[in-house]
Amino acid sequence: MIFTNRTEAAQKLAEALSGYRGENPLVLAIPRGAVPMAKTIADALEGELDVVLVRKLGAPGNPEFAIGAVDETGWVYLAPWAEEMGIGEDYLEKVKERELATIRARRAQYTPSRPPKNPQGRIVIVVDDGLATGSTMIAALHAIRAKNPKRLICAVPVAPPDTVEKIRPLCDEVVCLHAPENFYAVGQFYGDFSEVTDEEVIELLRESDSEKGIESN
């Protein structure tokens, strides 16, 4: 299955999640790529949009390969292979602090005039444009579970089967449209996988807040 772009993937996810329409779900995107997708889903389900801020911890010399992830509170998920790679505490602390600084900067950029929307007691759908190792989704689900949602759903267009199984115990439901064995990278399953900019994220969040009557600067 190849998605034309993120818009098509989001529309298909919205169809799969249509049972939550009318229940005012909180749709949380992992920035940046998932934000336009989450806006499409939130609109289709008559829900609210926000972001959950987590960052991948990249391996030494290969920052695109995740050895774990950190959430906004500083909680760290460390993948099993991080220890096998012999990665030291000094490196982990350094990369964690760097990614936390990025998270703080993004929070200030993305929602400068309001706190994060409260997931407590709500149906929460966490969206990404695809999973590889699943590290950032694990951190995101952990962060939201700690805030006591009524129901927690992971929604992605594509992920390898082993990652889907790794995610499953961390939420109440996984919606994954395509779980191919021959998985190399998320981008291989999109015709257009263009980068989403910070400016686009800010505008989508501002637009969504405006539609819900939330004032922003």
Number of strands: 8
Question: What characterizes the major β-sheet?
Answer: 5 strands, parallel
Multimeric state of these chains? single chain
Write down the CATH class of the largest domain: Alpha Beta
Average pLDDT metric: 96
The domain tally reads: 2
* Alpha plus pi helix count: 7
CATH architecture of the largest domain: 3-Layer(aba) Sandwich
Radius of gyration, in angstroms, nearest whole number: 16 Å
As a percent range, the share of helical residues equals: 25-40%
Structural class estimated from helices and strands: alpha/beta
Helix-strand string: HEHEEEEHHEHEHEH
Lateral strand order in the biggest sheet: 2-1-6-7-8
CATH topology of the largest domain: Rossmann fold
Structural summary, described in words:
The protein has 217 residues and is α/β, with parallel strands linked by helices. Strand 7 (151-158), helix 6 (161-167) and strand 8 (173-178) form a beta-alpha-beta unit. The longest helix has 22 residues, at 89-110. The radius of gyration is 16 Å and the shape is globular. The chain folds into 2 domains: 6-54 and 116-209, Rossmann fold, CATH 3.40.50.2020; 56-109, PRTase-like (Ybab, Chain: A). It is built from 7 helices and 8 strands, in the order αβαββββααβαβαβα. It has helices at residues 6-16, 34-45, 80-84, 89-110, 135-145, 161-167, 198-211, and strands at 26-29, 48-51, 54-59, 62-71, 76-78, 123-127, 151-158, 173-178. Helix 1 runs parallel beside helix 2 (34-45). It starts with 5 loop residues before the first helix and ends in a 6-residue tail after the last helix. Strands 2-1-6-7-8 form a 5-stranded parallel beta sheet, with helices on both faces. Strands 3-4-5 form a 3-stranded antiparallel beta sheet.
